[in-house]
Amino acid sequence: MRRYWHIHALLLLALGKAGVGQATEMQFRGKLIEPPVCSINDGGIVDVNFGDRLGVNKVDGVNYRQAVNYRISCEGSTGMDGMTLIFSGAVSTFDKAALQTSMSDLGIRIYQNDQPMAPGSKIAINPSSPPQLEAVPVQRPGAVLSEGQFEATATLQVNYQ
């Protein structure tokens, strides 16, 4: 029994030492900022007009490629990290990287630096030099396009995170 008493005493001493330590203070710092108010084309429409002479047999995802002309304006500081450009719209039923148009076999694919930018994409940007975007009509593989007007709509949004 005496042996167990010594073991208990040693354990209590060890536990007592483990509980003794130094405390240190913690400080937290930061800077709150007001995010800049940004707009695309001053809130107006970004219009990409492919013209009235697209050949139904020439839509191949290469022909008729057009620049998407837009500009981003921000009030206040524009050199801020954390700015993103979000592209959204109805996804084509035959090409997940294209917007659906009013013609079921025709879509519009958006490119950023020669890479498809699928609807739902979000990319980091510098608002003072936004990425160049291009749009090109694409068709459902094997489909025969009909003559007629078409349109598609999408949304470009700039966010600060």
UniProtKB/TrEMBL annotation:
Entry GO terms, CC: pilus
Pfam families: Fimbrial
Oxidoreductase recorded as keyword: no
Protein transport as UniProt keyword: no
Chain ranges of the Fimbrial-type adhesion domain: 27-161
InterPro entries noted in UniProt: Adhesion_dom_fimbrial, Adhesion_dom_fimbrial_sf, Adhesion_dom_sf, Bact_Fimbrial_Adh_Pro
Signal peptide residue numbers: 1-23
BP GO terms, sorted: cell adhesion involved in single-species biofilm formation
UniProt keyword terms in alphabetical order: Signal
SUPFAM superfamilies listed in its UniProt record: Bacterial adhesins
Protein's name in the database: Pilus assembly protein
Taxonomic placement: Bacteria, Pseudomonadati, Pseudomonadota, Gammaproteobacteria, Enterobacterales
